Amino acid sequence: MSLTGKTAVVTGSNSGIGLGVARGLAAEGANVVLNSYTDNEADHALAAEIAQDTGSDVRYIQADLSSASKSRKLIEDAGTAFGSVDILVNNAGIQHVAPISDFPEDKWDAIIAINMSSAFHTSAIAIPMMRKARWGRVINVASAHGLTASPYKSAYVAAKHGVVGLTKVTALETAGESITANAICPGYVLTPLVEAQIPETMKEYDMDRETVIKDVMLARQPSKEFATTEQIGGIAAFLCSDAAAQITGTTLSVDGGWTAL
Questions:
Q1: Model pTM?
Q2: Is residue 172 part of a domain?
Q3: Given this model, what pLDDT does residue 15 score?
């Protein structure tokens, strides 16, 4: 498989799952736009590092995806830089945990904007580019929480369910155009953010690392193993391949059996 000549935009990709996806697509030859809300030397250095490692053209474009206009401008800027956007990976997301009765209004609004609405706005600009190129891939990183629920995560669960619904509509509207739209639904993935939570959780529960991971963090993940960012990147690359040309409008769970329960 080669994605040489294709351009991918991966939102929220200067760390974690997004970075794993960006590396995976760049390794297959795609030009890649990294993105986050920050704009510092480390962000641009990361793009340069991936470019050197893979030989692909990788650039960093800052955009605050809580803004509809800035979400749309990200895709416009990427199209200007590379001539088109062929692959769109909507990955940006934030989280807040609280009971519905105590959930701050501003946190609800921010989670809905970044986790769900930004995917609508980026898709609205990218899809016409894909139609012009007669090829495209929209990959929305949802979550196991796009298929099931947990208490105290009302905004996140609502947003991720919305992303799954948006994925289905996108697939139906682009069916027969060599454009596909699918949602990857990870369970717990071993990202730097999750790794940083392990020592705190060990202290809170007075447990060793292995017990905390299996009995607390992965309590709902039957495999009792984290998914990795590299695995998510590999799945994204597969969805861009010719082998996945008839996979559209569906969800791919990467949750160790969580949603099989």
A1: 0.97
A2: yes
A3: 97
Indicate whether 260 belongs to any domain: no
Classify residue 206 as left (phi > 0), alpha (psi -120 to 50) or beta: left
Confidence (pLDDT) at 150: 96
Phi, psi of 156 (to 5 degrees): -65, -45
How far apart CA 139 and CA 90 sit, in angstroms, is 6
Q: Give residues with Cβ within 8 angstroms of 140, minimum separation 6.
A: 89, 90, 119, 163, 164, 166, 167, 181, 182, 183, 184
Residues 215, 101, single domain; the answer is no
User: Could you report the per-residue pLDDT of 148-178, keeping only the tens digit for each?
Assistant: 999 999 999 999 999 999 999 999 999 999 9
Same domain, 178 and 231: yes
Percent with pLDDT over 70 in the chain: 100
What residues are annotated to the active site? 156
